[in-house]
Amino acid sequence: MADLPLLEKMDSRLSFKQQFERVLLIGEAWRGAGILDSNPVQSGCPHHTYLTLQWGNPNSRRNIDLDENVLDNLQPPKCLKNLSIDQYMAARFAIWMNNVNKIFNLEKIKLTECLECETLLPFGQLPFLKSLYLHNMPKLKELPSLPSKLKRLEIDGIGWTTLNFCSNSNPIPLESLGVFHCPNITSLPLADEIRRLAALRYLSIITNCPNLISRGRYREVETTNNCHLMLSNLWISDPSVLLIEPLRSIFSLKELSISLSDELVSFPNEAEEWFLNITSSLCKLNYIHLASLQSLPSSESLSSLQELYIEDVPMLRELPNLPPSLKRLIIIGDCHPELKKRYREDGGSDRHKIAHIPQYDIRPR
């Protein structure tokens, strides 16, 4: 086991953090540690359920063949439930990772900075996989079929043009989907695919998906009442995405967050009209880290809105008319001096506009 540098072993978690150049007889080292899948007792099945493999800087020169050999030889026990691979630079994953019997019990997979990888594992054959995270893997060609138990999927920095993860007619129990920094994506799941996403409640589409906005908003898409997403929480950075199906037809949203945009100055008229879809459902509205935003859409018709949260929106000078239902108003962080002046307790010119709100907290930085 001494051949494995910087081995961290704590409870059920096992982590290798090194570039692995000093590892020689890797398979024998695993066996000597009682980790290889030789038998249920020696392999430490009650203990080694988490495995993290972290290589060095992906920008540094590396022997790709060595990366492949290392991963091929690191065959964990079948009891492994959580697998994380970071900065692996070969184009293919290990042979054992394509053997379903070896990874049968996985519940969570996280693949990060695997810049050369082109294909993924047979996720659809993993009956217990519930969480899948794919971060900064620009050469991936496609997403394989998803497993029957998957509840959380996060895609960040992937080069796909579409999200085709509904490859069969079976419902997908996906509850949370995050799409981040995917500049090539041009469309969201539609029609028949939406029917299979009946469990989806949390959706995030954050930053740098320009093709989705420019192409998607003008597509003529036939929708029916039985293929609407039943989202409860939506996070976006560009409100124009609200004009794209299936988001254009949402009626059940409970919380909307618009965040992390330096370019957004105001809402398109069509996006303001979109708020009429959720007047009776939306309970919480968040505006966070919007450096250029100068005005908010009208919220007076949002009859169920109970909380308005504004953080770091420094160009906002005034609030729109607020609904009588509002119970809580929070404004914190970077704040325009005029906004602070308008709503101050000692005689602000617009203080009366928030007098009906039981709880308010205005704390500009």
Automatic annotation (TrEMBL):
<feature type="domain" description="R13L1/DRL21-like LRR repeat region">
    <location>
        <begin position="50"/>
        <end position="137"/>
    </location>
</feature>
<protein>
    <recommendedName>
        <fullName>R13L1/DRL21-like LRR repeat region domain-containing protein</fullName>
    </recommendedName>
</protein>
<dbReference type="InterPro" id="IPR032675">
    <property type="entry name" value="LRR_dom_sf"/>
</dbReference>
<dbReference type="Pfam" id="PF25019">
    <property type="entry name" value="LRR_R13L1-DRL21"/>
</dbReference>
<dbReference type="InterPro" id="IPR056789">
    <property type="entry name" value="LRR_R13L1-DRL21"/>
</dbReference>
<keyword id="KW-0433">Leucine-rich repeat</keyword>
